[in-house]
Design goal:
Blueprint: H1 19-23, E1 33-39, E2 48-53, E3 57-60, E4 85-87, H2 93-96, H3 99-104, E5 114-116, H4 118-139, H5 150-159, E6 160-162, E7 170-171, E8 185-190, E9 198-204, E10 207-211, E11 233-237, H6 249-265, E12 270-273, H7 279-290, H8 296-299, E13 302-306, H9 309-319, H10 329-338, H11 355-364, E14 373-378, H12 388-398, E15 403-406, H13 415-424, E16 429-434, E17 449-453, E18 460-467, E19 471-473, H14 483-493, E20 497-501, H15 505-518, E21 524-527, E22 534-536, E23 546-547, H16 559-583, H17 588-615
Parallel strand pairs: 3-4, 4-5, 5-6, 10-11, 11-20, 12-14, 12-15, 13-14, 15-19, 20-21
Antiparallel strand pairs: 1-2, 1-22, 2-3, 7-8, 8-9, 9-10, 16-18, 17-18, 21-23
Helix pairs in contact: 4-9
The structure holds zinc ion.
């Protein structure tokens, strides 16, 4: 699929540019809604989708793109008080980080609520506080200005309207200041991506649009994805749309644990930079479950450290550990049986509160006798701030041998990406520069490290040279569904139109073709464009390049394609079997039966899909 259409409509320069007017869309009973991306169209970051009806205006998510100093959604054409309600799918900052700017510019109507689940509201508070700190720091840089402050963040908290997942559709007029004529109903369900994450379904006048939010279905501590209702339009995330399937979560966990175990048995310190929410809990749960398999004399010497924002985020998780709406039943059962209400904290975890606590943890480690071996989980995940970059610098200054696990996506321009590239490229060492200072007043010194202070900004900086044999890239822990999971969700929704959002170019192109071929009833799959509305109606021809099932002829499918397809089925099946098997012991006979059933389902599913394509 080629798409030469520009990123933005040509005449979108005007400050009062109105996307609906420009596209000539009039909302009425045949086109009761239109969806306009204001961010997160062809990028991962600043997700924001405006939904207009004849009577009201809503947003689904309002995020911040944290890369390149921070970028908010494109709000041009929105007038003060325009937005009647926001549906927030989950608490990640690329979905909620733009809310305070919306507040600052007065774009929300008086009493406009932000509808989300209770865990989303709680975790978003933690992340927005941190985002404000980062924003203040960045606003001090030349050419930048502050776009929101503490009052705006507090005003956002006041608007949160926490609601559990709603299987029955609810009328928006019960929650938002909309005119009596407004007939919008909404429904939410578990997206399996993060504690409290949801998809959102909006319906009006017999038409429906489903927004996937970020989809997961992989974490062992979260419930499965709830199937969303059938809809005319599906706005679908595509972050990993280019990937058949991840390494199965249970394999990824085991591989990572074995590597950490090796390091601890060698009595070497371990640093795992991690995102504070989601990944940190996936990791801490892994260590809760497995560290007790270490030989006693080693286990005794391991100091698990949970640092920075991951502490607060983990506390938020613990509030919900007995609620099977939000955490997997295996966790709820474990908590109820054992009475141990903090399953995300390995026994004896240290939670440093100050730099002197952190310094003590490193001082107490004795590499010669292997006493007090630190196993540190600390944000940020890409070594761009938080305490992980400080631990890394201290490790370089202090130790000959250490281990650093890169467990998540490493964006371009980050220290994490530099390390990852060096590892991939087979270099022996990698030099990274980080804006960070040491824990103590003494700057630990070695040939591999230089500390200094920027004269203009007063920022502390460090340049550290890291041996690549310290590094391990741990893949397969992603909280995002790969192609198989995205396709399954799309099949449940069965839309005529799929609009891909929140993904890089290659992932969207790849996924668009795959869904056009493999989702029954789909008429077009399109890559969304910023400020270009998608009408929710039937028989629509979109104003942006799309693929349709006619582009594909199943007779011409090559052996290569068939093999790829088979590979995908087996991969997905492997993952399901592993998940099920984790729950309890299965006999071989039961497993054989399970595999047979699953295969029968998958084959039935797939032949239905290809029949439908052939009909067109
Ligand atoms: Zn997310």
């Amino acid at each position: 699929m080629t798409d030469d259409t520009p990123w933005l409509p040509d005449d979108a320069d005007e400050a009062d540019f109105d996307p609906l007017d420009h596209a000539g869309i009039t909302l009425d009973k045949d086109t009761p809604m239109a969806v306009t991306p204001r961010g997160g169209a062809r990028e991962v970051g600043r997700s924001c989708y405006q939904v207009d009806t004849e009577w009201a205006t809503y947003l689904v998510d309002c995020g911040l793109n944290q890369g390149a100093g921070g970028q908010f959604p494109d709000f041009r054409g929105l007038e003060p008080n325009d937005v009647d309600a926001v549906f927030l799918t989950h608490a990640h900052i690329d979905h909620c980080g733009g809310l305070p700017v919306l507040e600052n510019r007065g774009l929300l109507a008086e009493d406009a609520p932000i509808l989300c689940t209770p865990p989303t509201a709680q975790i978003a508070q933690t992340l927005l506080e941190d985002s404000l700190k980062i924003h203040r720091r960045e606003a001090n840089r030349p050419g930048r200005q502050q776009e929101f402050g503490e009052a705006d963040v507090n005003a956002v908290y006041d608007r949160f309207e926490p609601l559990d997942y709603t299987t029955e559709a609810r009328w928006i007029e019960q929650y938002a200041p909309v005119p009596d004529m407004e007939s919008l109903q909404f429904q939410t369900g578990d997206a399996g991506h993060l504690l409290g994450s949801s998809w959102v379904s909006l319906q009006s006048a017999g038409y429906r649009a489903v927004f996937s939010g970020d989809l997961g279905g992989r974490a062992t501590h979260l419930p499965d994805i709830d199937p969303a209702p059938e809809a005319d339009l599906l706005v679908l995330e595509s972050t990993y749309g280019g990937l058949h399937s991840h390494t199965s979560m249970s394999d990824a966990r085991t591989e990572l644990y074995r590597a950490v175990e090796r390091a601890l048995k060698n009595r070497e310190p371990v640093l795992i930079p991690t995102f504070a929410v989601g990944r940190a809990q996936t990791l801490s749960l892994l260590f809760t479950e497995r560290l007790n398999t270490l030989p006693d004399h080693i286990e005794r010497e391991v100091n698990v450290v949970l640092d920075g924002m991951a502490q607060e985020a983990t506390d938020r998780y613990h509030v919900h550990v007995t609620d099977s709406d939000y955490v997997d039943e295996s966790i709820v059962n474990r908590v109820e049986e054992s009475g141990w209400t903090q399953p995300f904290l390995p026994d004896g975890t240290i939670r440093p509160e100050s730099d002197s606590d952190r310094e003590r943890i490193l001082d107490e480690f004795d590499p010669v006798n292997g006493e007090n071996i630190p196993l540190i989980l600390a944000p940020s995940g890409m070594l761009t701030g938080g305490h992980s970059s400080r631990y890394l610098a201290e490790f370089v200054a202090r130790y000959d041998d250490a281990n650093v696990f890169l467990t998540g996506y490493q964006a371009n321009g980050t220290a994490g990406r530099t390390l990852h590239n060096a590892l991939d490229g087979g270099a022996e060492r990698a030099t990274v520069e980080m804006d960070t200072g040491p824990f103590g007043t003494e700057f630990p010194d070695s040939d591999d490290i230089t500390w200094w202070t920027d004269k203009e900004t007063g920022e502390r900086l460090v340049r550290a040279t890291v041996p690549t044999d310290w590094l391990t890239a741990a893949d397969g822990l992603s909280g995002h569904a790969a192609r198989h999971g995205l396709r399954q969700f799309a099949r449940d929704v069965g839309p005529a139109t799929i609009s891909l959002v929140h993904g890089p170019d290659y992932a969207q192109e790849n996924l668009a073709q795959h869904l056009a071929e493999n989702v029954s009833g789909v008429e077009q799959v399109t890559r969304s464009r910023l400020l270009t509305p998608i009408p929710v109606t039937r028989d629509v021809a979109l104003d942006t390049a799309s693929v349709t099932p006619e582009h594909f002829d199943s007779d011409k499918e090559t052996y290569g394609d068939q093999l790829e397809h088979l590979h995908e089925l087996v991969g997905a099946l492997g993952e399901e079997v592993a998940d099920v098997r984790g729950g309890r012991e299965w006999t071989e006979a039961e497993l054989r039966e399970l595999v047979r059933d699953e295969l029968r389902d998958l084959v039935a599913d797939d032949s239905l899909a290809s029949e439908a394509s052939a009909d067109d």
